[in-house]
Amino acid sequence: MKTIEQRLQEYKELGYTVFENVFSPEQMACWKSKYDDLVARQTLPEAEKPQLWLSSVVEYEPWLMLPAVNDPVILDFAERVMGPFVQLDNLTFMAFPSISKEEAEGRASGWHRDIWGWLPEGDQYFRPLACNAITYLQDLTAEFGPLRVIEGSHRMPITIAKEDINKPHPQEKIINVKAGDVVFTHCALLHSGTPNTSGQRRYFFSIYYNLSWLRCRDNHDGPNVQKIIKMAREKNDRRLMRLFGVDELVFSRANSGFQTPDEIMWDKWITEDRAVLKG
Ligand SMILES: O=C(O)CCC(=O)C(=O)O
Q: What is the per-residue pLDDT for 181?
C-alpha cells in the first residue's frame, strides 16, 4: 500500500498514479447492466446512430452513478493534487465495440492531452487544472486494449506528429490495469487507448474533475443533481456541493494572497471543510 505522500510524489513525477480495486465487481455489474438503457435514453429520435458516448449520467441515474464520481479515496487524492477545488466536469461512460485484429494491428487509439491541459514549456511540475480518473470495467488485457502513457509528459514539451497519432510511441508505457482500478492522470499527460479486439465490449469511465472556477461539460442544473446538492447542503458537505459546481468559498480561497505554500493552505481548508460537516 502506498501512502498518499508516496502517491503524490509518483503523480508529480510520472503524471499519473494507479489506484487498485476501487470499485467492486457487483458495482461494476450494475453500471454495465444500465449502459444500453442509457444509450437508448441519450440517443435522439432522429439520430442515425446510437449515442455510445454517454455524458451527464449522474443526472440520468443519480443514485447509481454518484458512487462513481464521489469515491472518498479518489476525492481525497484529487484534493491533494488540485486543492479543495474539485468539481465534476464530466462523467463519460462508453462501451467501445470490438473491431477485427487486422484493423487494430499496430494501432493506438489516438495520442492526446486531455481538456484543460496544455503543452508544457519546461520540466516544471504545475498543479493540474483537471484530472482524469480513468476507470475500466473489465481487465485491460492485450485484447481489451490497454492504456498507453508517456510518463513525465505532463512536464515535457513532447508533441506527436499528426501522422503518428495512431502509432505506438517509442517512449510509451503500457498499462494493463484490472477491472475496478482507477488510473488517475494529470490533464497534460500524453496518453492513448488501444483498440478493442476482445470480441466483447470495452467498458470505460472517464471521471473528469476540473477546478471549481472552470466551466463544466456535464449539466448539473437538472432536478436529480440539484437534489444531491440539496442533500449536501443540509449536511454542510462542501466537498459534495463543490463536486456539482457549488463552491461558495471559491472567491476567498482563490484570492488568498498566496503568501503560504499552496499545499499548506489546501490542507488547512480541507481540514476546515471536514470540521463543519454535519452527521
Ligand atoms: O480508451 C482509453 O483507454 C483511453 C481513454 C482516454 O484517452 C481518455 O479518457 O482521455
A: 98
